[in-house]
Write a structure and sequence with these properties.
Keywords: Oxidoreductase. The protein is an alpha/beta fold. The chain is built from six helices and eight strands; from the N terminus they run βαβαβαβαβαβαββ. The chain is globular, with a radius of gyration of 16 Å. The structure holds NADP nicotinamide-adenine-dinucleotide phosphate (NAP). The site of NADP nicotinamide-adenine-dinucleotide phosphate (NAP) has 28 residues, from helix 1.
């Protein structure tokens, strides 16, 4: 997709990856609408982007998810890209994980992106647009000490794959972004537990650049090759 003068909703623009991606898309000439939960963080990103329109939403409230898509579509007069960069982590052995933590992970990491994606598709269909969603490497490599977090991302990834098959007939690209560990502070903000030992973090700027390339070139997936320690776009 040519990015210049196209319209993008960035959900999770208050977060580390979402904020960096919003900057890159703005630099590439996109008109951005920003959504997030933290009002102050969102306002800060908006002012860095010259006052981009923005609104808060709450991922555990599905009405709020649908509403933010409609508000952005109205504000920008159409959507060419919906990028979902919200998410939350939790760590610890399965036996010690509280049901409420599992429920929260499945709501924020799976249900919310599904609802956001479903609300976005009719808008994206009108303009041959792209739905791009951050799942995680855990969708490919479910990991001990992160069973519930892995499951929430694997379910999201499965939904994106099946939806891509449906949506392509209607001219919509679906990009499943499965980054490796990057040092964004997500682990420190986990709902519970401390992360197991992970390989060194991938370079955040390289991950962000590769995601933007994937959006531009209509990639289906971003994957991380653990043997080669390399990001790979899949078409
Ligand atoms: N960092 C990694 O190693 C890594 C690796 C693979 C995949 N990912 C995925 O990449 C995405 C972005 O993560 P990040 O590393 O940039 O982490 P982050 O900085 O913590 O960003 C998380 C974002 O999710 C939002 N969020 C969390 N709970 C929410 C809720 N209940 N309602 C609305 N928004 C909510 C946060 O909003 P507020 O800040 O406004 O509260 C923030 O915008 C996530 O899906 C994550 O799973 C990250």
């Amino acid at each position: 997709m040519r990015l210049r003068n196209k319209n993008a909703l960035v959900v999770g623009a208050s977060g580390t990856l979402g904020g960096k991606l919003a900057h890159k898309l703005h630099e590439a000439g996109m008109n951005t609408y920003l959504a997030g939960r933290d009002r102050d963080a969102l306002a800060a990103v908006s002012s860095e982007l010259g006052g981009a329109a923005h609104s808060t939403f709450e991922a555990i409230d599905t009405d709020s998810c649908r509403r933010v898509v409609e508000t952005a579509a109205d504000s920008l007069a159409g959507l060419d890209l919906v990028l979902v960069a919200t998410g939350v982590a939790a760590f610890g052995p399965t036996a010690n994980t509280e049901d409420a933590v599992t429920e929260h992970l499945l709501t924020v990491n799976t249900l919310a992106p599904v609802v956001l994606g479903r609300a976005s598709l009719p808008h994206l269909e009108q303009r041959g647009g792209t739905l791009a969603v951050l799942s995680a490497i855990l969708a490919d490599h479910p990991t001990a000490g992160m069973a519930d977090y892995s499951a929430s991302k694997a379910a999201l990834s499965a939904w994106l794959t099946a939806t891509r098959r449906e949506a392509r007939r209607r001219g919509v690209d679906v990009f499943d972004i499965r980054p490796p560990h990057v040092a964004t502070g997500l682990a420190e903000r986990a709902l519970s537990g401390t992360p197991p030992r992970t390989p060194p973090a991938a370079d955040t700027d390289e991950v962000v650049e590769t995601i933007v390339s994937g959006i531009r070139d209509s990639a289906h997936e971003l994957r991380y090759d653990l043997d080669e320690q390399q990001l790979r776009l899949v078409f």
